[in-house]
Amino acid sequence: MLFEELNLIEPILKALQTEGYTQPTPIQEQSIPSILQKKDLLGCAQTGTGKTAAFAIPMLQLLSKPHSNTKVHKTIKALVLTPTRELAIQIEESFKAYGKNLPIRHLVIFGGVGQKAQTDALQRGVDILVATPGRLLDLMNQGFINLKDVEIFVLDEADRMLDMGFIHDVKKVILKLPVVRQTLFFSATMPKEIQALADTILRNPVKVEVTPVSSTAEKIQQQIFFVEKNDKKDLLLHLLKDKTIETALVFARTKHGSDRIVKDLIKVGIKAEAIHGNKSQNARQRALSNFKAKITRILVATDIAARGIDVDELAHVINYELPNVPETYVHRIGRTGRAGLSGTAFSFCDPEEKEFLDDIEKLIGLKIPVTEDHPFAMSWQSLLSGAAAAKANGKAKPTRGGRPERNARPAAGGGASKPNGARPERTERQPNLSGAKRNPNSGSRRWSSKKTSS
Questions:
Q1: How does pLDDT run across 366-410, given as a tens digit for each residue?
Q2: What is the CA radius of gyration of the chain?
């Protein structure tokens, strides 16, 4: 199917052509016609499926029709609520791209930055507002935002809203919306509380369920490197001698660890920047822009800071430290291998992280191949012995509730009151994005003899 077959108006088709899009993804093909018919929608899909365009394109078309309301641009007609700043920014950029030929105003608001530019734009008039819950409620309480004329409400990443502690804020926002409206509800997973919320706010919704574009195993070549914790820095530098790794997204578990990795890379002449919750929003956006433009070779990120990162043709992800929540691993490596391209995910595993690896492999249903051929390799037996010693010394994995970067939840302003303007960072459990089935041959560890270029 082509976009031309979805009854889209010419200004949108022209914008899509400019962006190089001709064929809709499965979720776009299934969602756009129903949304254009002004039906409520329940979508089970995650980042990477084309979900944003699935709601942004038909919303632009619906809002482009003449309104009897003479207060054009003066009242908010559509609200998109999303959990993180990075995702909010990307969604607003999508509205900008697809609606470039339409006289529709859109704005993104989030915490962690001053509010004046946002309130000035609100007072000039906005048709589509993309927002994170904290800043939205803050500006509503100050009288800058009124949702009484909202015609379309989108709740994006609902399960992450729950995981990040935003669900009560979401319910407060919903209470301020008109009863008669079109609601589009998206969530990668449907825990009981999210299902209950969906049942409450949706009216006879069309249900669209899209499985991940592929499992972790199909598009992404995964490799595990057994290494002592103190040797991880040298292993990373060894891997980056390979000039075919033009750029790489490196994941660390903590903000301090991210900064330390960046310092180590800069010392040897590798351009690197970090994004995490202690960085201002402007610094984070600048680092991401430099990475996308390949000015910066290595971007080091914590899990929350990486939400919404969508870099075209990112070929390599490196897990400097394994996450203690296995679903997070799937989300991390899913930053590569997107849009039908292949990708590579390198993961470092020290003895204290052995249990993390076990949980990850249990989740994705396969044993990740081990690369032994590197200067800092540990044997399987050494790793097991080290893991047993770590457990005996009380260094076993933390509980699911334990989070390396957990901070106090910010006030309703989304953290704008912090001295450095950065919103406190949260970590959260990630949904299973893998779609992988258990490998019947996964009972024994597979060893890879593949060499790493030096």
A1: 899 999 888 888 776 777 777 777 776 665 544 333 333 333 333
A2: 23
